[in-house]
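Journal club side-thread
Mid-discussion, someone asked how the predicted structure for our own chain would compare to the paper's figures. Pasting it here so we can look after the session.
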Amino acid sequence: MTLPILDKPQPADLKKCVHCGLCLNACPTYRELGVEMDSPRGRIYQMAQVAAGKMPVNDDYVEHMGLCLACRACETACPSGVQYGRLIEGALAQIEREAPRPLVSRLIRRLVFAKILRSRFLLAAGGYKLLFYRKSGLQQMMRATGFFDGLGRLGELEQLAPEAQAPFFFSRIGKTFPAEGETRHRVAFLAGCMQNVFFSRLNEATVRVLQKNGCEVAIPGEQGCCGALHVHAGLRGLGREQARQNIAALEKGGYDAVITNTAGCGSVLKEYPDLFETGSAWRRRAAEFSAKVQDVSEFLASVELNRDFGEVRRTVTYQDSCHLLHGQKISAQPRRIIGAIPGVVFRELPLTELCCGSAGVYNVEHTDISMSLLEDKMRMVEATGADTIVTANPGCMLQLQAGARKFSKRQPVMHVVELLDEAYAARG
């Protein structure tokens, strides 16, 4: 059976790499471990060996591919235009087919990826359990008594656990919100999956900001998880199913743009065509859909921004989300938006192009490397003197919040659109 395109590394993509090594310093795992096989060049060499039949998909190969954060910083550094994101996603998909995981791991992944992320009911149920854990005082008591201190990795993971935000955003899905004033744009908002539980206020702020900027905002009820976490985990079949669901849900809406506030989701949404065979009807439909996808900061920077702001007194630094900067090549737009807000003092973050260590579920699977990268990132934040950290991706927000608690001064972490929403609210 021939694997669908990009369900394994493609020879044409592999051949683009000239093994110059300019990607090495951009790679977080190479900077951290200093191992050639854990660099983009080393991983591409291994992929080429597997593709040529000179190397099996063995445990070493699985380990080196699995240690990659898929941050795609190497793409920005590469002079040859190597599409490393496609290569690593293809390698992980091939591993998923040819190197079956232990039974327990397969069951856990099936529960999370095939069930929970695709079910609003299960996501809400998990959110309510976390709400009880926090609001009952149990979380505070267990942290205060040092209960987690001796539990090693489990204790570290507890520090990374997101906080559920009730009321959840699910109640807004299926509704349309009118523009404030003249309607200049009709947009669809993709609310995501976990964002509806853990970033409900961010989703609400996104809708308000779009309304302030002349947008009628539809939140189609038939939408689902975008499939980004599935694709990044090598589960491209499930990602393909999610792509079909979202394309079918939105393609006939006649929207001017399809908006996301999540950089990792945005990258996959824009790359939906790569999930389907060349020349297929679904690839054509995916291309038409993806052409309308925009990150919320990208969209707002492209329209006449409503500047009816109040003053916001914050000194902020901005951490580039990897999938926004390296995946979508969006850098200037969030900074322009931040710079437009009166009262905000902006401090550029050194080495902002380096990953914070979140990378989807990487901080859960490889907590030690993730925390080391995060500690370095928080040192850079401290150097700016900023009292607020701004970014453009919920996963980065969770990671930076953990970093502020563990390594810094507990600075608030905000999404760009939340800062805008605060400026509009300050105007009253």
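Post-session note: The chain has four domains: 11-98, 103-160, 169-301, 309-427.
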